[in-house]
Specification:
Belongs to the sigma-70 factor family. ECF subfamily. The chain is an alpha+beta fold and about 350 residues long. Helix content is about 45%, strand content about 15%. Strands 1, 2, 3, 4, 5, 6 and 7 form a 7-stranded mixed sheet that branches.
Length: about 350
């Protein structure tokens, strides 16, 4: 996030090279022989052109929409539109930029129909006491993103994607195209069928919102600034503390202002004392026995949590918990509850009970 804002502060008006936040996939130029073949109706040639771009464009759709499922649908729609319209590809830009333009408009159609996705912290104040809560099914919840080898961490961090959801679709698209993908304002205007003045206005408003949400140039520390050894230590400590029921060890890993949210549950907790009260009264005492599998999501450390209730002979998938670290401690826990998330991460839905 810091890098994004630093680039814009320099006032760069043209980005001839690819952004450092996108993939190393070669840019396919109009002179590529497969372009001519695809324009003449060769679907295999079209597939060779777009397949190397599929993963990074999917990540773009996720940033726009905050949901892997929505990103899947938007990508498929974009590829269909690209194939149907490839005969009209004029070669004024790379195939990559052309596909990003189509996918952005496919995402904008989804945003117009569905609106934005949310986290519990967007819906109301933190809970002041632990109580019974039920899932909210009337909210379109933000979801986690299984890691991709192409994206650098700042581009898919949970806080960044969540902040994007507070922007109208046009501002969201303009910011991502300009800051992450390196499009110029003129190119964005062409994509969005508007004027350069409108694009610059949308960018200015988007930056103000993101500055308020994630701190702008100060921002959230990028995960890359936290040494990998400390990340492993924190994740191991987190899983061990929950499995042992060691509340003191757990709280020692938290910042003073830590938050814990659990979509689709609407309640969330802020501060060590509140989180400690919750973890002592619920996960460590009344839920059952926990097992964990370390994974990663949104370019951040994450833990797949499995729960075995009393009398059962297996641990069942419960949540994917994404950990946001600051200064070597856990500043945010976001537990995405539901076994549907496990399928996205190619994780088993159950683990055998251990003695």
């Amino acid at each position: 996030m810091n890098r994004l804002f630093r680039r814009s502060e320099r006032g760069d008006s043209r980005r001839g090279a690819e952004s450092s936040l996108v993939s190393e996939v070669p840019v396919l130029e109009p002179g590529d022989p497969d372009v001519a073949r695809a324009r003449s109706g060769d679907h295999e040639a079209f597939t060779r052109l777009v397949e190397p771009l599929r993963r990074e464009v999917h990540a773009h759709c996720y940033r726009m929409l905050g949901s892997v499922h929505d990103a899947d649908d938007a990508l498929q729609e974009a590829l269909l539109r690209a194939w149907r319209g490839f005969g009209r590809f004029e070669g004024r830009s790379s195939v990559r930029n052309w596909l990003y333009a189509i996918s952005t408009n496919a995402c904008l159609d989804v945003v117009e129909r569905r609106g934005r996705r949310a986290l519990p912290v967007d819906l109301g104040p933190a809970s002041t006491e632990v109580g019974e809560h039920v899932p909210r099914t009337d909210v379109a919840w933000l979801g986690p993103y299984p890691d991709a080898r192409y994206e650098q961490r700042e581009a898919v961090e949970l806080a960044f994607v969540a902040a994007l959801q507070h922007l109208p679709g046009n501002q969201r698209a303009a910011l991502l195209l300009f800051e992450v993908l390196g499009f110029t304002a003129a190119e964005i205007a062409d994509v969005m069928k508007t004027t350069v003045t409108s694009v610059n206005s949308a960018l200015a408003r988007a930056r103000r919102v993101l500055t308020a949400k994630v701190g702008g140039p100060a921002g959230l520390p990028a995960l890359s600034k936290v040494q990998d050894a400390r990340v492993r230590e924190v994740v191991a400590g987190y899983t061990a503390a929950l499995e042992r029921g060691d509340a003191d060890a757990f709280v020692a890993l938290l910042t003073e202002d830590v938050t814990w949210s659990m979509p689709p549950m609407p309640h969330w907790y802020r501060g060590r004392e509140s989180v400690m009260d919750f973890v002592s009264r619920v996960p460590m005492t009344t839920c059952g026995a926990w097992r964990h599998v370390v994974t990663s999501a949104n370019g951040q450390p994450a833990v797949a949590c499995y729960l075995r209730r009393e009398g059962e002979d297996r641990h069942d998938a419960w949540s994917i918990t994404v950990l946001t670290l600051r200064d070597g401690l856990i500043a945010e826990l976001t537990s995405f509850i539901g076994d549907d998330h496990f399928k996205l991460f190619a994780l088993p839905l159950s683990l055998p009970a251990t003695s």
